[in-house]
Amino acid sequence: MAMATTTATTILQLPGVTHNRSAFLGSGVPQLSVKVGRPSPSLLLTIQAKAHTRGEDRHARHSRIRKKVEGTPERPRLCIFRSNKHLYVQVIDDTKMHTLASASTMQKPMSDEFNYTSGPTIEVAKRIGEIIAKSCLEKGITKVAFDRGGYPYHGRVEAVAASAREHGLQF
């Protein structure tokens, strides 16, 4: 009596198989085709649902944004990077690959002005927006393209943008 077998494609993580991290947005888990018949007790299978971290998701969003937002000499890109302890803002001309202006919480005047231990707050972000706007206006930059860096337009990112607008930058 012949037994009927079917073929199914599933994502498997096998013991001893190294992850392929070369794929940019791939899951990093090898995809295998397996014939499903009688289960083999010697084969241990683990099905993995999600393999992206928050940082990988943010990096993918930032890549999608960068396809659309480009800094030119007339309208440079205002780029934000947010870490757990600090906040960094740069105005970049992408054609020459030059940073035209920058502000961060690590600069001496900012670190002396605010004494915080758990990371930058919205008030600190507003001050950073004010500093970057004044720095740009001193250098004759009035229009910028806003690059939120893959972060949601909320909280500290929104505070930097609003403060920069209040102090004369046009987005």
From TrEMBL:
One Pfam family this sequence matches: Ribosomal_L18p
Cellular component, GO annotation: cytoplasm; ribonucleoprotein complex; ribosome
GO molecular function, one term: structural constituent of ribosome
Alphabetically ordered keywords of this record: Ribonucleoprotein, Ribosomal protein, RNA-binding, rRNA-binding
Keyword Metal-binding in annotation: no
Keyword Ribosomal protein tagged: yes
Gene Ontology annotations of biological process type: translation
Classification via InterPro entries: Ribosomal_L18, Ribosomal_uL18_bac-type, Ribosomal_uL18_bac/plant/anim
Similarity comment: family membership: Belongs to the universal ribosomal protein uL18 family.
UniProt-listed NCBIfam families: L18_bact
Protein name: Large ribosomal subunit protein uL18c
Organism: Rubroshorea leprosula
Classification of source organism: Eukaryota, Viridiplantae, Streptophyta, Embryophyta, Tracheophyta
